[in-house]
Write a structure and sequence with these properties.
heterodimer, A: 434 residues, alpha/beta, FAD/NAD(P)-binding domain, Enolase-like, domain 1, five-stranded parallel sheet, 11 helices, 26% strand, B: 530 residues, mainly alpha, Alpha-Beta Plaits, two-stranded antiparallel sheet, 61% helix, 2% strand
């Protein structure tokens, strides 16, 4: 029986294992050094905030794995010998495979800041990060102030987490407005105001210069590059993005760049070795997508596809229309298709932006300025139907159609106020004045 | 597991009560303390005034607490620290609260004399006497233990309903739904029966009850004394009897078809009202395991079989045998019941074969138990007094085991241990009937939003019915489950906007997906259209 070994028990690896099991009787082993069982990484924040216990983040009950004959092995892979198809564990034992899948995810970026390895300085990615956070920032007596470096999705989640325990937070964001490398101006500015409303000390256009240690090797304060200001703090969260967690491959023959280089079939340069999820890097980017997509959904999709290939139905990774979602404190965000911020926006892309007076809801519709073709939508505080937008993107609807049929895409709970009329009026108004 | 880290430290101040919340709690407890004094027969000179003060203190304490907890914060999900607080995570305070509630129910059901209930004609004492002024004001009669219970029950729903509305003030579905349960409790469950009681006199006697309380939840509605008094009360009484029957066979099926069982369970029902308001803090404690789901299906359907048999036996016992006197005789009645059951089960098997699959055999077992029992009732009762179980014994057993122990002592007393919907999930026969229809013949479902689920588990954790909502959402599959009461909280707590309660067409309502939306179109087609 062919032995499929998957390194990493995150969403990519587990989705792959589940689908291989559905399609075949192959022997499957999932290896993880992080946890015994698969859990939802995106839910770690809710454990710290007390919404969930850790076991609630596990989507399958513990009997699931044995019942489906998916072997789970806890261990850290030190090296991979692709010639003999053998994995060597830090614990000293080995395992052989017929096909190997690398799905080891990401690790938080550290950009060589002085003091970045001090006690009380960490990212937020793994279960271990959560456990550490619970030690260094359990409450606002042990942690009197926290500083977060990096204004992305993990940064704002960490800010919300610390805020839930009344720990004062200073949030250093390199950009001139929160996440404006991705979000258009109006949205980014609305989120700035929302962050400040939650009493988070948001510092825009601010970089970390260095982290200063106390006599015990623990963080004491940080210095801001631009102002030279020194902030006393007990915790520093490094959330300036993530990069593939592949340092254990350095001595192997598997070709890597930032991530494990793969072709459209998710194959590496070595036969019978594949990579999926956050740690995989496409040799050529697909459409507007980045070569490395560190997103829950793409990890899952790669797992779904690779299962086909491994089970004999060779298939390219060919994702559909882009979508994503997040939550900024109280404001939910969804996106379908492509809406660019000012950075990297194609010349032909133009925007229609509508914002509600209460400053918690807005949408931005991107469309082609010449053809009026609908390109994508960002929606804040209003839930939209994935399927509807997916269909409109496939049908290449124009922006007028989308604005006029927006009610069909609404996914808010029943009895919620609808804003389609306001949005339509604003759209028509904009056209007249433009 | 090792995830039980040093949370005790973090409890230090972030999740403790604020000063105002402590004072507010103390005010509420002071109100309850007055009741305790009354139980121990402290004599109050002006009972009406003391009762008013006690009720107001409880209401005021709760309202102040809620204002302080929610009005100073932004609108949004307020579950911070739920699993760190002793009361809401089966801590010491949770267990103590459970013990006190359970003790209260045991006294209420089995030792009402401890609350001050006396024999007929003798003035009440203790706590029940304290409620006499209010009872006389409403119905003209002295209070009973049920009046005391009803008043406190209504107060709990109103006060905690207010708290719930503040907690979910960003969510119009939750606000309107909570307004609905508060209204139905105050008007239908509490006030109207009291006013109906006023209509009664020596010459006119009508059962006064909560009109929205439908059989089989109201398992005693068709007992002989009630049916007799309804029939003898002229047009109004007959109207009530017809309404009671129409509720089961006409009103309920239509509303459940259009809106799912939520129209009753989380919008109208009194048990649901208490669970959704006072019980809201305990919703996360329900057991989500597949094992619990198995137990649930066996237990709730057994209760259903039990109540159908019991009611049939009871009604059968007081009907006549001579069809020249009245058309509805013992045997006609049994044939009617058997025919109805056969129509329902054959209908389900013929039209819903595919959806039933595994559950079909359980349904068949239940059906055959009832049918064979009907034969037994017929055979044994026509021969002699010999009978497997006397109708009266059945009725008493049901009233004790299900009506008191299950719905009261366990159902509500154990809120802080098993969650707030134990009765609705494992015991309520009404929920079983509505659920059966919801699963097979209703427009209601919870729609999942394409591929947006991140499997975080908030929906499953906060499902009071113990449905593993995530298991469906992460497959992009709509949730069509008999037990779903449509409270809407899974949708509210979802951080990615994945869940929506909807009434839509029956077609394509159940839609398991192997590959989720967002992936290669060809792959999705290949796998999902198999």
């Amino acid at each position: 029986m062919e032995h499929i070994v998957i390194i990493g028990n995150g969403i990519s690896g587990v989705t792959l294992a589940r689908h291989i099991r559905k399609l075949s009787n192959k022997k499957i082993t999932i290896i993880s050094a992080e946890t015994d069982y698969f859990f939802s990484r995106t839910a770690l924040m809710y454990v710290y905030m007390g919404h969930l216990k850790f076991e609630h983040t596990q989507p399958y009950e513990n009997w699931f794995w044995e019942k489906n004959k998916i072997n789970l092995k806890k261990g850290y892979v030190n090296t991979i010998d692709t010639d003999s198809k053998t994995l060597h564990f830090a614990e000293g034992d080995t395992i052989t495979y017929d096909k190997l899948v690398i799905a080891t995810g990401s690790k938080p970026n550290k950009f060589g800041w002085p003091g970045q390895d001090l006690k009380g300085v960490q990212g937020l990615y793994s279960k271990q990060d959560l456990d550490n956070l619970e030690v260094v920032a359990p409450n606002n007596q042990v942690c009197k102030r926290a500083v977060i470096v990096g204004g992305g999705l993990i940064g704002i989640e960490l800010a919300e987490m610390l805020n839930s325990r009344n720990i004062p937070v200073t949030f250093l964001v390199r950009e001139s407005s929160f996440w404006n490398g991705v979000l258009p101006e109006g949205e980014s500015e609305m989120i700035n105001r929302h962050i400040k409303k939650h009493h988070i000390d948001l510092r825009l256009s601010s970089n970390l210069k260095e982290i200063i240690s106390d006599e015990n090797g623990k963080v004491k304060s940080i210095i801001i590059e631009e102002t030279g200001e020194e902030l006393t703090c007990d915790f520093v969260g490094l959330t300036a993005g993530v990069s593939p967690n592949i340092s254990f491959l350095e001595d192997s023959k598997i070709e890597t760049n930032k991530g494990v280089l793969v072709n459209r079939y998710l194959e590496t340069n070595i036969k019978d070795v594949y990579a999926i999820g956050d740690c995989a890097e496409q040799r050529e980017a697909i459409g507007n997508r980045r070569p490395i997509e560190a997103v829950w959904y793409t990890g899952r999709m790669m797992g779904e596809v690779l299962a086909q290939t491994i089970c004999g139905n060779s298939m390219q990774y060919n994702p559909g229309h882009w979508f994503n979602s997040a939550k900024f404190l109280d404001i939910e965000y969804q996106t379908y298709g492509w809406v660019f911020g000012s950075k990297g926006r194609p010349d032909y892309e133009t925007h229609f932006h509508w914002k509600h007076d209460d400053d918690t809801k807005c949408i931005t519709i991107a469309y082609h300025k010449d053809t009026n073709q609908f390109l994508g939508i960002n929606t804040f505080g209003i839930r939209m139907r994935h399927q509807t937008f997916d269909q409109w993107l496939t049908e290449k609807r124009d922006v007028d159609y989308v604005v006029n049929h927006l009610a069909e895409a609404n996914f808010d709970p029943e009895f919620y106020k609808h804003f389609e009329k306001d949005i339509k009026a604003a759209f028509n108004n904009q056209l007249q004045t433009a | 597991m090792s995830n039980k880290l040093n949370y005790s430290m973090s409890l230090a101040n972030s999740y403790g009560l604020s000063k105002s919340q402590k004072i507010a709690s103390a005010i509420g407890i002071l109100g309850l303390f007055i009741f305790l004094l009354a139980i121990f027969n402290v004599q109050f000179t002006n009972r009406g005034l003391v009762l008013t003060i006690a009720l107001l203190l409880i209401a005021f304490g709760t309202v102040w607490f809620a204002n302080n907890a929610y009005l100073n914060t932004s609108e949004g999900i307020k579950n911070d620290g739920v699993w760190f607080k002793s009361i809401s995570s089966r801590g010491l305070i949770g267990w103590l609260t459970g013990l006190v509630l359970t003790g209260f129910y045991i006294v209420l059901y089995f030792f009402p004399e401890l609350l001050g209930l006396t024999e007929k004609g003798v003035a009440n004492t203790g706590l029940i006497a304290l409620f006499d002024p209010l009872s006389r004001l409403l119905s003209g009669n002295p209070a009973s233990q049920w009046f005391v219970y009803g008043t406190l029950y209504t107060l709990a729903i109103l006060a905690f309903g207010y708290k719930f509305i503040l907690k979910y003030r960003h969510n119009r579905y939750e606000k309107i739904r909570t307004g609905s349960v508060m209204f139905f409790q105050l008007a239908f469950a509490f006030l109207i029966p009291e006013f109906m009681a006023r209509l009664n006199s020596d010459s006119f006697s009508l059962p006064y009850y909560d009109l929205k309380n439908i059989w089989p939840l109201n398992y005693y509605n068709f007992e002989q004394y009630r049916v007799n008094s309804m029939i003898s009360a002229g047009d109004i009484g007959t109207g009530l009897l017809i309404f009671g029957i129409a509720s089961i066979f006409i009103i309920t099926p239509i509303l459940t078809y259009k809106y799912g069982k939520r129209w009753y369970c989380s919008w109208v029902c009194g048990c649901g009202a208490l669970a959704e308001t006072a019980g809201d803090s305990f919703r996360q404690l329900s057991d989500k395991s597949q094992f619990a789901w198995k137990v649930e299906r066996w237990v709730i359907h057994s209760v259903l079989v039990f109540v159908v048999l019991m009611t049939t036996a009871v009604v059968h016992s007081y009907l006549g045998v001579d069809n020249t006197k009245y058309w509805l005789t013992k045997s006609t009645f049994l044939i009617l019941v058997a025919s109805l059951l056969t129509i329902v089960f054959v209908g389900a098997f013929v039209f819903k074969r595919k959806e039933l699959a595994k559950d079909a055999k359980y349904g068949a077992i239940g059906y055959f138990v009832i049918i064979i029992s009907l034969f037994a009732i017929y055979y044994f009762s026509s021969n002699s007094n010999l009978f497997l179980f006397k109708p009266e014994t059945l009725r008493k057993t049901y009233a004790f085991l299900i009506g008191s122990i299950f719905s009261g002592v366990i159902g509500t007393g154990f809120y802080p241990i098993f969650g707030n919907r134990v009765w609705c999930r494992f015991g309520c026969p009404m929920a079983a009937i509505l659920g059966f229809q919801q699963r097979l013949f209703s427009k209601f479902r919870i729609t999942t939003n394409g591929g947006q689920c991140i499997s975080c588990g908030n929906c499953s954790t906060y499902c009071e019915m113990g449905i593993d909502v995530r298991a469906y959402a992460q497959k992009g599959e709509n949730i069509v489950r008999s037990s779903c009461v449509g409270c809407g909280i899974c949708s509210a707590v979802c951080p990615r906007g994945v869940l929506k309660l909807e009434n839509d067409s029956m077609k394509g309502r159940i839609n398991p997906n192997e590959i989720l939306l967002g992936n290669d179109v060809n792959l999705m087609d290949l796998i999902n259209q198999k």
